[in-house]
Design brief:
Helix content is about 35%, strand content about 25%. The chain is of the alpha/beta class. It has a single domain, classed as D-tyrosyl-tRNA(Tyr) deacylase (D-tyrosyl-trna(Tyr) Deacylase, Chain: A, 3-Layer(bba) Sandwich), CATH 3.50.80. One of its GO terms (cellular component) is cytoplasm.
Length: about 200
């Protein structure tokens, strides 16, 4: 999932996080577990002495307001928004509910609040800071261009790993050490100031 966390003074629930949660077509339970862990453990609040970035919502007994937000997975086609990367509502609603239940079982259920899934909502928040953090689960990007770029990088890594060091590079290293017995690879920390051009 992708989400935006806003540290807020939320008039309806008190101090805590307002979480705008977007669910991607590719999200799995592993993504949901990661997001729940981060929402509850990110150190976005000050401690009792006013030291910033030291306490999480769980440390401070703060509340979490979750609002389903499919528009976080928007892709622009010209000037028109396209939401095909967002999970369809009939699948997203049970997924969203499972995230809420996971948070409630991990933390204090009475401190986990949610908006109405798929409803038009007007959320009144008073920003405290302001602090806004964008967070996405690390299983991979959903942008098709980024996916193909990531796949190419992975293929390059696999090719490099499968080749290993070539025979010619090993032979050159052995030849160099036979020619100059005083030459150092630098592994022992030996730095010579006298080098031949």
């Amino acid at each position: 999932p992708s989400l935006v966390l806003e540290r807020e003074q939320i008039s309806s629930i008190g101090r805590g996080l307002c979480v705008l949660l977007g669910i991607s077509v590719e999200d799995t339970q592993k993504d949901a577990d990661y997001i729940v862990r981060k929402i509850l453990n990110l150190r976005l609040f000050e401690d009792e002495n006013g030291r910033a970035w030291t306490k999480s919502v769980m440390d401070r007994d703060f509340e979490v307001l979750c609002v389903s937000q499919f528009t976080l997975h928007c892709v622009l086609k010209g000037n028109k928004p396209d939401f095909h990367l967002a999970m369809p509502a009939e699948l997203a609603q049970p997924f969203y509910n499972s995230i809420l239940e996971n948070m409630r079982s991990t933390y204090k259920p009475e401190l986990i609040k949610d908006g109405k899934f798929g409803a038009y909502m007007q959320v009144s928040i008073q920003n405290d800071g302001p602090v806004t953090v964008e967070l996405a689960s690390p299983t991979g990007p959903t942008d098709p261009k980024q996916l193909s770029k990531q796949e190419k990088q992975q293929q390059r890594k696999e090719k490099t790993r499968s080749k290993g060091p070539s025979d010619s590079s090993r032979d050159k290293g052995a030849l160099r050490s036979r020619q100059d017995p005083n030459a150092s690879s630098g592994a022992e920390g030996d730095v010579s100031s006298e080098r031949e051009p």
